[in-house]
Design goal:
Elements: E1 5-16, E2 19-30, E3 34-39, H1 45-52, E4 60-65, E5 68-69, H2 75-80, E6 83-86, H3 98-105, H4 114-124, H5 126-130, H6 141-154, E7 159-163, H7 171-186, E8 190-195, H8 198-204, E9 207-212, E10 215-221, H9 222-227, H10 229-236
Parallel strand pairs: 3-8, 3-9, 6-7, 7-8
Antiparallel strand pairs: 1-2, 1-4, 4-5, 9-10
The structure holds adenosine-5'-triphosphate (ATP).
């Protein structure tokens, strides 16, 4: 792991009209890290990711990616540069097959390894391989989450932003999704993971941040946060 952060969020403020959703958040993600951002419903986690990917304007502060400010850049340009988000609600192309969705993830690539990468994705997600020709819209929530993650990986992200990947899934699917996140991280992908499932997200994380009412209130190694009495009481229910 190098010391140069790939992604730096500095004093970020984001507002919806008069409502301040993010009030000066600072966090960073370094090469090879899995960083988890946890917090209650409405804490401002999704808004933070939206500001990073240009989907919501930045009121104050800065976001730096690969050492450069990316304020004002759009989601498509950022994805082309390797900053790729899997949004809450997944956003798969429901009328396309699984294979077609994966191909869409590689739309901006010029190399000839797309097929080899589809095979790699099928290695990570055997369920997608079994259903390669099925329409994405007919798959279960967990399968669509896998597809959205697979599609994002097809873009060869330098930093993968995952917004609540376990939301609304059955316990078995939640296990599977966290297993896959661990695999993807183990294979070298740098990840910023936003989750309400604090215990699972912190257990996997190199480092974690806690967000409360738009502010980062704690940060530290994942294992340390997991053991912290305040975090346990507020986010783990014990
Ligand atoms: P969740 O886990 O529920 O998605 P979150 O931590 O991701 O929560 P955000 O979705 O970022 O929280 O919301 C932060 C605050 O901003 C909340 O008070 C929310 O009501 C508000 N908010 C989010 N989106 C909008 C919007 N489009 N217009 C107005 N207010 C919004």
């Amino acid at each position: 792991m190098s010391n140069q952060p790939l992604l730096e969020i500095q004093g970020l403020k984001v507002a919806y009209g008069g409502i301040q959703a993010v009030k000066g958040a600072t966090l960073e993600v370094r090469q090879g890290e899995l960083v988890s951002l946890i917090g209650a419903n409405g804490a401002g986690k999704t808004t933070t990711l939206k500001a990073v990917t240009g989907l919501q304007p930045i009121a104050a502060g800065d976001v730096r990616y690969l050492g450069e400010s990316i304020r004002g850049q759009g989601a498509w340009d950022l994805a082309r540069k390797g900053l790729v988000m899997v949004p809450e609600g997944r956003g798969t192309f429901t009328r396309m097959t699984i294979v077609e969705n994966l191909m869409m993830g590689a739309y901006n690539r010029r190399d000839d390894e797309v097929q080899a990468d589809i095979d790699k994705i099928f290695g990570i997600f055997p369920r997608l391989k079994e259903r390669a020709e099925q329409l994405a819209g007919t798959m279960s929530g967990g399968e669509q989450q896998m597809l959205a993650m697979g599609r994002a990986l097809m873009a060869k992200p330098k930093v993968l932003l995952l917004d609540e990947p376990s939301m609304g899934l059955s316990p078995i699917m939640v296990d599977k999704i966290f297993e896959v996140i661990e695999t993807i991280h183990g294979q070298g992908t740098t990840i910023l993971l936003v989750e309400q499932n604090a215990s699972r997200a912190l257990a996997l994380a190199n480092r974690g941040y806690v967000m409360d009412s738009g502010e980062i209130t704690m940060e530290g190694p994942g294992a340390q946060l997991l053991d912290d009495p305040q975090v346990r009481a507020a986010y783990l229910g014990h």
